[in-house]
Amino acid sequence: MSPAPERSVDAERVRREILDEGSGSEPYVLRDARVRGMLRLDGAEIRRAVRFEACLFDEAVSLEGATTLAVTVVGCTLPGLRASTTRFGGRLDLRRSVIGERDGTESAVDLVHADIAGGVRLDGAHLVAPGRVALEGGGLVARGGVFCEDGFHAEGEVGFPGAELPGGLWMRGARISVGAADTLAFHGDAVKTSNVRLQGLRADGRIRLRGAQVDDLVSLRDAELTGSGSSLMCVGMRTEALDLLFAQPPTGGVNLRNAHASRLQDDPRTWPKTLGLDGFTYDWLGETAGTRREDVTNRLAWLRHQPVYAPQPYEQLASYYRRSGHEDEARRVLLVRERQRRATLGSAGRAWGWLLDATVGYGYRPWIAGIWLAVLTLLGSVVFAAHNPVPNKKGEGAPFNPVAYALDLMVPVGGLGQRDGWHWDEGTVQGLAYGLIAVGWILTTTVVAGVTRTLSRN
Does 266 reside within a domain? Predict the structure, then answer.
């Protein structure tokens, strides 16, 4: 901290000079001074720009409900800035200032429902409000955006719930310290903005963007999130692009339930242990591997990060592959969906599921039934060829053909003229014939059930 200025001035005097109508529109400037007492400009109509440089304020600066032009507090130290419902005709510049106090009871910077025609500049600022809200911007309107970069550090929560920031929210390389992993570090619920740039952000609490509406990009590239529970909460968020290329896996989960991102970029190496993906929709996914087969394998592993089974994420991923022209990958995803669903069923449902999977791959691999048919036809024909059948009516019907007979037993519809023309005196062979008939009905039933399931759900 820089040494206290040698020159001091009374806060009341500063107030009178700022509001002095005789000064016209000439900016008010105060440098390298200590301001004694509380500078209170609540409800005032300030017709000139105000600039403080390298000043030390004994008490908070209050502008609540005021109307003013640009306000600059650069390189200063002050216990707090109160500017709720204030209307700024220019920008609010707080660069490189130290604002707040460790033993206080209020936020460091209060901008609740403030209306700022320009931007809010907090680059290099240090906000001090441990255990409290360091930057309170609920309902803030800042048309020029909010910039918290170049070494910005907040000790306490940073919040913009319901704020409108057409110029974006820029916090690249920022640090938020709340001291408890289960505490909210960043609160951006229902924020409306063009961008949320949190690249390189370090936060030891939770990040929340529930219901946020972002026109362009939400980026957490190279961010380090160590909050517990949901390190990142984006339930219901809408954005054009979402970049989740974290510096390392978040300590807690990432919740994207019912969110939408036209484009998603992520990396399997930084996926969190748990992902909330139920209801999450997207139009494009960044590839996770070099080949399509490896990519779908990774994406299926991505879906398994869900704490509980939900069908929608599988259907969404299959729809994405289908739109991209990769039908085989889509069928693979839907097959895995059915296998995951099977684990949630009762014993009878699981048994039926195993049968559908083994015979027709739940309808997504009907060729498996053909393999079963070929193998059992071969087995039956070998056994039948080694024994002598008995004709049902001597001298009538086609000659015995073991292959046609085995196939005729397993195809319950139609016939090849073999099944009704012969029988067996040997119980074992007759038992095999009955077994093949039963298998034929099972294969037919599962094929019909599997195909019907596939058509009805897709």
Answer: no
Amino acid type, 291: T
* DSSP state for residue 219 in the 8-state scheme: E
Helix (H) / strand (E) element for 136: namely: strand 126-136
What does the pLDDT look like over 332-349, one tens digit per residue?
898 889 888 888 888 888
Q: Look at residues 137, 170, 203 and tell me which one is the last residue of a structural domain.
A: 170
Classify residue 269: in a domain, yes or no.
no
Closest CA to 419 of 445, 398, 395: 398
Question: Is 436 inside any structural domain?
Answer: yes
Residue 399 lies in a domain: yes
Joined tokens for residue 156? 């306490």
Q: Is the pTM of this model over 0.85?
A: no
Report the alpha-carbon distance of residue 222 to residue 217 in Å, rounded.
Answer: 15
Q: Are strands 275-276 and 253-255 parallel, antiparallel or unpaired?
A: parallel
Residues 6+ apart with CB under 8 A from 262: 239, 240, 241, 282, 283, 284
**How many whole angstroms from its chain centre is CA 140?**
25
Position 381: which residue type?
A: S
Q: Which residue has the tokens 């490896």?
A: 294
* Strand blocks (E) in 14-121: 28-31, 33-36, 39-40, 50-53, 56-57, 61-62, 67-68, 71-74, 77-78, 81-82, 87-88, 92-93, 98-100, 109-110, 115-116, 120-121
Q: How many CB atoms lie within 10 A of CB 404?
A: 18
Domain count, the chain: 2
CA distance 454 to 458: 6
Question: In which domain, by residue range, is 446 found?
Answer: 350-457
Please say whether the dihedral angle defined by the alpha carbons of residues 31, 36, 42 and 47, taken in this order, is positive or negative.
negative
Residue 329 CB neighbour total at 10 angstroms: 22
Residue 395 to residue 178: CA distance in whole angstroms: 95
15 residue type, one letter: R
Q: Are 121 and 94 in contact (CB under 8 A)?
A: yes
Note whether 133 and 159 are within 8 A (CB).
yes
What's the CA gap between 108 and 66, in Å, rounded? 18
Average pLDDT of the chain to the nearest whole number? 89
Q: Among 124, 150, 170, which residue terminates a domain?
A: 170
Residues 6 or more apart in contact with residue 168 via CB below 8 angstroms: 145, 146, 193, 194, 195, 196, 197, 216
139-161: per-residue pLDDT in tens? 999 999 999 999 999 999 999 99
